[in-house]
Every structure is written in structure tokens, then in C-alpha cells.
Amino acid sequence: MTSLPQLETTDTQEPDWYRDGVRFRCQGPECGACCSGRMGPGAVWLNRDEMEELAGHLSLPLSELKRRYVRRLEGRYSLKERGNYDCIFYLDGTGCSVYEARPGQCRTYPFWGRVMASRVTWEIEAEKCPGINADQTRIEAGDIRRQLEIDTQRRDRS
């Protein structure tokens, strides 16, 4: 649910600045920086396929999933947040209660277009995400490009 400030990336865009890979390792459920509301409100966007997958995972009809866990925001579907801005499926100290069926936005974080637009936007996100630059675990450029493509395709279906 991490949100970035609105930045114009046309001047700072560095195509393939990550050609040598980047350092990233998710810090796990005890972290929760991207799922909890510690950084304020956010949105986990959903497309119909993702809602259907979540509904199946929870053994709910799609209409019930939408009623209990989904909101309309800016004309799109997003997971609801709790009053403290935590994702509705985030459990403190445990992590994602629907991890196996989590939406693509969650699966591809932090490899989103806005985050990967430049080294500057990557470093801004690192201030929020302790897994970015955390250790020597390197994610290769090809893997990053695949995650970016998955995220783009997912958003196109929203």
C-alpha cells in the first residue's frame, strides 16, 4: 500500500538504470511497511480476475467479497483499509492473511513503474521500505523487467 509522492519522471527517468540489478529482500511479516498504514493511506488496486481469485480463496461469492473487503476509489476497485490505514488483510506480526491469493500489486512490489522510473524514485521508496538496499540480495534486471511487465498487464486489466 506504499504510496509515492506525485513526481514528474520525464526529466529524471533513467531507462534501465537498474541494468546491474538492485538490492532488495522483503523483510517479512514482522516488517509490514508496505501493508500497514504506518506511512498513511494508500490503495491496493484490484481487477476482476484478482477479486475472483480472492473470493475463491476466501470461499465467498464475488458480491460478498466486494461488500466486505473492496471499495470504489477514483472509479476503480481497491481493497478497504482499516481505520489505522492497514490493509484489510494485514495482521500485525503475522502479515498477509490472503498471501497465496494476494493481488498482483502486492506480488510485484517494489517493482512498479513509478518506483523503478529512476534511481531517485527508488531511493525515495527506500526511505519507506526497509527491504530496499537492505543487504546484498540482488534482484537481476531481467527479473525486474518481468515484474514491471506483470504489473503493467495487471493495471491494464483494472
Walk me through the structure.
This protein is α+β, with helices and mostly antiparallel strands and 158 residues long. Helices cover 32% and strands 11% of the residues. It has one domain. Helix 1 crosses helix 2. The N terminus is likely disordered.
Can you tell me the residue ranges where pLDDT is under 50 for at least 5 consecutive residues?
2-11
Taken in chain order, the helices and strands follow as: EEHHEEEEHHHEH
Question: What is the molecular shape?
Answer: globular
Distance between the termini: 16 Å
Please state the structural category.
Answer: alpha+beta
Q: How would you describe the oligomerization state of the chains in this entry?
A: single chain
| Estimated share of beta-strand residues | 5-15%
Quick recap of the structure?
With 158 residues, the protein is of the alpha+beta class. The chain has helices at residues 48-57, 62-69, 104-108, 113-116, 119-126, 141-156; strands spanning 22-23, 45-46, 70-73, 76-79, 90-91, 95-96, 138-139. It has one domain (22-156).
